Amino acid sequence: MAIKIDRIDAGSEAEALGLQPGDELLSVDENELNDTLDYDFYTDSSSFHLKAKVADGIREWDVRRAERGPFGCDFSTYLGDQKHSCSNHCMFCFIDQLPPGMRESLYFKDDDERLSFLFGNYITMTNMQDHEIDRIIKMHISPINISVHTTNPQLRVRMLANKRGGEVLKYLPRLVEGGIAVNCQLVLCRGINDGEELRRTLGDLLELTPMVQSIAAVPCGVTDYRQNLFKQTPYDAETSAAVIDIMEEFGDECKRRHGKRIIYPSDEWYLKAGRPIPPAEFYEDFDQLENGVGMMRLFEDEFRAELDRPHRIYGTKQIDVVTGTMAGHLITELMDELHRQYPMIDVKVHVVKNNFFGGNVGVAGLVTATDIIAQCEGKLESGTLGIPAVMLREEKDTFLDDMTIAQLGERLGVKVEVLPVGGGDEAKALLRTGLHISRRRRA
Q1: Average of pLDDT values for 381-398?
Q2: Burial class for 394, CB neighbours closer than 10 Å (0-12, 13-18, 19+)
Q3: Which candidate in 56, 246, 266, 296 could, as Cys together with 292 as Cys, close a disulfide (CB 3.0–4.6 Å)?
Q4: What is the pLDDT of residues 219-254, one digit of tens each?
Q5: With contact defined as beta carbons under 8 Å apart, do 254 and 201 qualify?
């Protein structure tokens, strides 16, 4: 294996050796280089033996360095090669349920342990081999995020539609025994891997705690685009409550054993069951925020804490804001409280139903400009529309349906203001007016 150099940093040790763009790095200390993780790990040393393929053949160097650090090679991608794609056909896959006509990149299914470490992506391990597990342990690539779903090998094969789905469960104890911290995700499908199967899974994972440092359960997302896919029955209040009871039971046991809960239901279960979101202490370090675990509790607490701080505001502010149906009640409640404490600031909340995806999709992060336009046109009174940053994709100004905030503003005839993700930061943004001066406690 080899990785091709795309650029050489000026003044670097790589440049001093005479390496050029287009050269291929083959090995460091006889360790093959497959990607940038190998490159960074093995060159982060005061001395090493480098082998590379250059224009006139194979060359080797004994590198001696004054100090450790970047060696000076850059590559065409941040991985040094291409992302590993998913080999599963999961019965709950959300990407399989996307409507047609979206950006091509949204349809790519990654299943790459390097992205798990670098960006927190979840992997199923079905495209991994023993040597890749060995590398993770050797390099101490930790934590690793794993989509477990079930520890029943036969059921996991069925759920992932991959014959290796059960076999690779053996990697979980190997990672833990190798000192790798693991975060686990369970996507629950009603009547499939909940109930007694959920108990089995949590019981098995409990034996791997505390190196399995967090376990989150989320309900299967269902859109209107499930043609020719496995039939999923959405959870209702009763079945959601049953999941909460099991998760909290095992979380209580983790708390007894390790002093930490470790096992958490996502916020959606509580909303579906009609139960209050637990207090902040329940979520401890908020280890699974990206899975919607404690996100609403943290947002509310931060928002209210900011309101409790002294602000002195001159002038007035009117703004319309949008959110998804899942957070609609909470956001409306918080904006009412903001107006109660600061009557000069008036925020009108528009709860946007997700017709673009349909099904049971209600999170703010999946709201599209298409639905905002359809449901808010002619209803915006302030001239300014607040958009939560979670609705925007990688480019920071583009929705999932490929419309930009500039295009949205033009269609609706308003100025668009992107609101920060955190509750405290959003409160600050809403409290800010053109005449906002230094804070002083209100009389």
Answers
A1: 88
A2: exposed
A3: 266
A4: 999 888 888 888 899 999 999 999 999 999 999 999
A5: no
Beta strands in 201-277 (DSSP E): 212-219, 263-265
416 membership: H or E segment, kind and range: strand 415-419
In the chain, how many H helices and how many E strands? Answer: 15, 17
Q: How far is it, in rounded angstroms, from Cα 171 to Cα 176?
A: 9
Rounded CA-CA distance 422/419 in Å is: 9
Helix (H) or strand (E) holding 425: helix 423-431
Is residue 254 within 8 A of residue 260, CB to CB? The reply is yes
Which spans in 93-129 are helix H?
113-119
Would you say 152 and 201 are in contact if contact means Cβ atoms under 8 Å apart?
Answer: yes
Per-residue burial over 211-234, b = 16 or more CB atoms within 10 Å of its CB, e = otherwise: bbbbbbbbbbbbbeeeeebbebee
What is the percentage of the chain residues whose pLDDT exceeds 90?
A: 70
pTM to 2 decimals? 0.85
With CA atoms as reference, report the closest residue to 86 among 78, 73, 96: 96
Torsion, Cα 218 224 228 230, to 10 degrees, reads: 20
Q: How does pLDDT run across 277-287, given as a tens digit for each residue?
A: 999 999 999 99
C-beta separation of 220 from 147 below 8 A: no
Residue 37: closest CA among 66, 86, 3? 3
Q: What whole-number distance in Å separates Cα of residue 221 and Cα of residue 219? A: 6
Quote the CA–CA distance of 375 and 169 in Å, as a whole number: 46
What is each CA distance from 9 to 50, 61, 63, 228, 259, in whole angstroms?
17, 18, 17, 51, 48
Cβ atoms 419, 388 nearer than 8 A: yes
CB 345 within 8 A of CB 316: yes
